[in-house]
C-alpha cells in the first residue's frame, strides 16, 4: 500500500536539502530534482512544504506527471480518498444471436437499433467523436468500446509520456513495435478479415470473428491521440501500406513464409513507390526490373525516395517497371533486404521518428515468386492500396485536428489574459468553433466512407469510393492544417518553442506537410475526386 503523510509531515520538508510538494493530494519529493527542474530551482523552493497543485497546473500538462510520478512521488496525503482500481479491459461479450453484427467483408449489416455506449473520456464537446460522449451511433458497439479502453490504457501509460523524447531522438524504441504485434494490433490493420491463420496473437478485447473496419479505424485513432505523426508512422506508416498488397495479392507460399514474422512485430515491411522524379503520377515510375535470362529472377535497378520506415525495413513492397511506359508496364515486387539494397535516412521537416528513407536498388536479384499480383498488372495493386492508405491518413488527420482543438480548449480554460480566461474572449471561442465544425464535418464523412468500404467488395470500393476518398483526404489535411494553425495562435509562444504545454501543437504544426503532400497531394486529390466521381457516376447513368 502507498505511504501516507499528514500536511504537517509535508510542511516539515519545506526548506534546505529536503523539499516535498503536494500535487492533487499526492506527495512528491523534489529535493534532488530541483537542480534539474527546467522551470528553475527557486520556483520549487517557494512552494516546498505546501500544496503546489494550482501553480503546477498553470505551467504543465498531464504528461509531465505521468512521466515523473514513478521517479518523484513518495506517497499521498492521509486525507486522500483511495481510488477504485481500474478494471482490466474485459473481452467483449460474444455476439447475441438476435443482433446483426458487422463482419469485415461485404456482408456488414448495421444494428437495427443503435444503443448509445457509456460516456467515455473527458466529455469535452467535439474533443472526441460523439459516440464517446453518450450519443447514439449505428457503427460502434460494445466491442469497439472495449478496444478503445484497451488501446487508450496502453497509449497513456507506455507511449504518451515518452513521445516527445522519441520524436526528438527520431526513433521509437523497438519494443513498442513488438508490442503492436503481440497485442494483435498489426494483424488488425490490414483492411481485411483478421488473419487468424497467420498469427497466434489476438486482440485482447475483440475476437477475430468480430473484427471490422471500425475497429481498425479506432485503433489508428487512439494511437493518434499521442499527437505525433512520427509515432503513428513509425508504428503503422510502413506496415499499414506495405503489407496489405502482400496479403491481398501475394502468392500463398510467399505470404505463408514471411507474413507470420511481420505480424509478430519481428520483421518490418514498407511500401516503396515514390521516386526522386515521380510521386503522385505513379504511371511514370522508372525503377526497372528485368527478367533474368533463366526466367528465375528479376534484376532491379533504381531509386526510391521518401520511403517511410525504409531504414528499418526487412521487406520493400516496391513498384517497378517491367513493361512499356505508362500504367500498363508496372508491377509490384516484394524485395527482401539483400545485396544491392541500400537505405539512408532523410532529414525532414516533420514526422521525425518515422524514418523517412532514400532507397537504392543496384542489381538486386529478386525471385520471380516475389511478384505481387500479375506482371504489368501492378497499377491495380497500387490503386487498390491507395484507398486504404488515404483512409489511414484521414483518420490520423482527423484525430490530430482534435488533439489541436482539445489542447487549445483545455489551455483556454486556464490561461488568463486581460483579466479574463481565454475561453471568455469571443475571438478565442470563434477559433474553437471553426475548428470544431470542420473536425465534425470531416469525421462524419469519414465514418460514412468506412461504412461504405465495409459494405463493398474491394474492387467495387476502389472504383466507387476512390473519388470520395480522394476528396476526403484533401478535406482532412486542410482541416488538420487549419486546426494546427489556430491552436498555435491560441498557445502563442508556448507553441513556438518545443516541448512543454504547447509541445503537441508545435510538433503537429511541423507534421502537417507530411500529410498534405504524400499519399496524393491536395491538388491532385481534389482534381481526382471530381474526375473519378464523374466517371463512375457516368457509368451509373448520371443524367446531365
Ligand atoms: C513534480 C513536480 C514537477 C515536475 C516533475 C516538473 C517538471 C517540469 C518540466 C519537465 C518542465 C519543462 C516544460 C515541460 O515539459 O512542461 C517544467 C517547466 C516549468 N515548471 Fe515544473 N515541474 C514540477 C513542479 C513545478 C512547480 C510546483 C512549479 C511552480 C511552482 C513549476 C514551474 C515550472 C515553470 C514556470 C516551468 C517553465 C514553463 C515554461 O517553459 O513555460 N514546476 N517543469
From TrEMBL:
Molecular function as annotated in GO: acyl-CoA dehydrogenase activity; flavin adenine dinucleotide binding
GO cellular component: cytoplasm
PROSITE patterns recorded: CYTOCHROME_B5_2
GO biological process: fatty acid beta-oxidation using acyl-CoA dehydrogenase
Database matches in InterPro entries: Acyl-CoA_dehydrogenase, Acyl-CoA_Oxase/DH_mid-dom, Acyl-CoA_Oxase/DH_mid-dom_sf, AcylCo_DH-like_C, AcylCo_DH/oxidase_C, AcylCoA_DH/ox_N, AcylCoA_DH/ox_N_sf, AcylCoA_DH/oxidase_NM_dom_sf
Region (Disordered): 78-120
Keyword line: FAD, Flavoprotein, Oxidoreductase
Cofactor: FAD
SUPFAM superfamilies in UniProt: Acyl-CoA dehydrogenase C-terminal domain-like, Acyl-CoA dehydrogenase NM domain-like, Cytochrome b5-like heme/steroid binding domain
Family: Belongs to the acyl-CoA dehydrogenase family.
Protein name: Uncharacterized protein
Organism for this UniProt entry: Penicillium atrosanguineum
Amino acid at each position: 500500500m502507498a505511504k501516507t503523510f499528514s500536511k504537517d509531515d509535508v510542511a516539515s520538508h519545506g526548506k534546505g536539502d529536503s523539499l516535498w510538494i503536494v500535487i492533487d493530494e499526492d506527495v512528491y519529493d523534489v529535493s534532488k530534482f530541483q537542480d534539474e527542474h527546467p522551470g528553475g530551482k527557486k520556483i520549487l523552493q517557494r512552494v516546498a512544504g505546501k500544496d503546489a497543485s494550482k501553480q503546477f497546473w498553470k505551467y504543465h500538462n498531464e504528461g509531465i506527471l505521468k512521466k515523473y510520478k514513478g521517479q518523484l512521488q513518495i506517497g499521498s496525503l492521509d486525507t486522500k480518498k483511495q481510488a477504485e482500481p481500474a478494471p482490466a479491459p474485459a473481452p467483449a461479450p460474444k455476439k447475441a444471436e438476435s443482433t446483426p453484427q458487422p463482419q469485415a467483408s461485404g456482408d456488414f449489416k448495421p444494428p437495427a437499433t443503435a444503443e448509445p455506449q457509456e460516456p467515455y473520456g473527458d466529455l469535452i464537446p467535439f474533443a472526441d467523436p460523439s459516440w464517446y460522449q453518450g450519443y447514439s451511433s449505428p457503427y460502434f458497439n460494445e466491442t469497439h468500446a472495449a478496444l478503445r479502453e484497451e488501446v487508450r490504457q496502453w497509449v497513456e501509460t507506455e507511449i504518451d509520456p515518452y513521445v516527445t523524447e522519441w520524436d526528438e531522438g527520431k526513433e521509437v524504441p523497438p519494443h513498442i513495435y513488438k508490442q503492436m504485434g503481440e497485442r494483435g494490433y498489426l494483424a488488425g490493420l490490414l483492411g481485411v478479415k483478421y488473419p487468424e491463420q497467420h498469427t497466434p496473437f489476438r486482440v485482447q478485447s475483440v475476437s477475430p470473428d468480430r473484427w471490422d473496419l471500425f475497429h481498425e479505424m479506432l485503433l489508428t485513432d487512439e494511437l493518434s491521440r499521442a499527437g505525433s505523426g512520427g509515432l503513428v508512422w513509425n508504428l503503422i506508416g510502413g506496415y499499414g501500406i506495405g503489407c496489405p498488397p502482400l496479403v491481398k495479392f501475394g502468392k500463398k507460399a510467399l505470404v505463408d513464409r514471411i507474413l507470420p514474422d511481420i505480424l509478430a512485430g519481428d520483421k518490418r515491411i514498407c511500401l516503396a513507390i515514390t521516386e526522386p522524379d515521380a510521386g503522385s503520377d505513379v504511371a511514370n515510375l522508372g525503377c526497372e526490373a528485368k527478367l533474368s535470362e533463366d526466367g528465375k529472377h528479376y534484376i532491379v535497378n533504381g531509386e526510391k525516395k521518401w520511403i517511410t520506415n525504409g531504414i528499418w525495413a526487412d521487406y520493400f513492397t516496391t513498384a517497378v517497371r517491367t513493361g512499356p511506359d505508362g500504367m500498363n508496364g508496372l508491377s509490384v515486387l516484394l524485395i527482401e533486404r539483400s545485396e544491392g539494397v541500400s537505405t539512408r535516412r532523410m532529414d525532414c521537416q516533420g514526422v521525425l521518428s518515422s524514418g523517412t528513407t532514400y532507397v537504392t536498388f543496384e542489381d538486386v536479384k529478386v525471385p520471380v515468386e516475389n511478384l505481387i499480383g500479375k506482371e504489368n498488372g501492378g497499377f491495380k495493386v497500387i490503386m487498390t492500396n491507395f484507398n486504404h492508405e488515404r483512409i489511414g491518413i484521414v483518420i490520423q488527420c482527423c484525430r490530430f485536428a482534435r488533439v489541436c482543438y482539445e489542447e487549445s480548449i483545455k489551455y483556454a480554460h486556464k490561461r488568463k489574459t486581460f483579466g479574463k480566461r481565454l475561453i471568455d474572449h469571443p475571438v478565442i471561442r470563434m477559433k474553437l468553433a471553426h475548428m470544431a465544425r470542420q473536425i465534425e464535418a470531416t469525421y462524419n464523412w469519414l465514418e460514412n466512407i468506412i461504412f461504405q468500404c465495409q459494405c463493398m467488395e474491394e474492387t467495387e470500393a476502389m472504383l466507387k469510393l476512390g473519388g470520395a476518398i480522394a476528396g476526403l483526404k484533401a478535406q482532412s489535411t486542410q482541416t488538420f492544417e487549419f486546426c494546427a494553425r489556430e491552436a498555435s495562435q491560441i498557445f502563442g509562444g508556448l507553441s513556438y518553442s518545443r516541448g512543454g504545454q504547447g509541445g503537441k501543437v508545435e510538433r503537429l504544426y511541423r507534421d502537417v506537410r507530411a500529410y498534405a503532400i504524400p499519399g496524393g497531394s491536395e491538388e491532385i486529390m481534389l482534381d481526382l475526386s471530381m474526375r473519378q466521381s464523374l466517371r463512375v457516376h457516368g457509368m451509373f447513368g448520371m443524367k446531365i
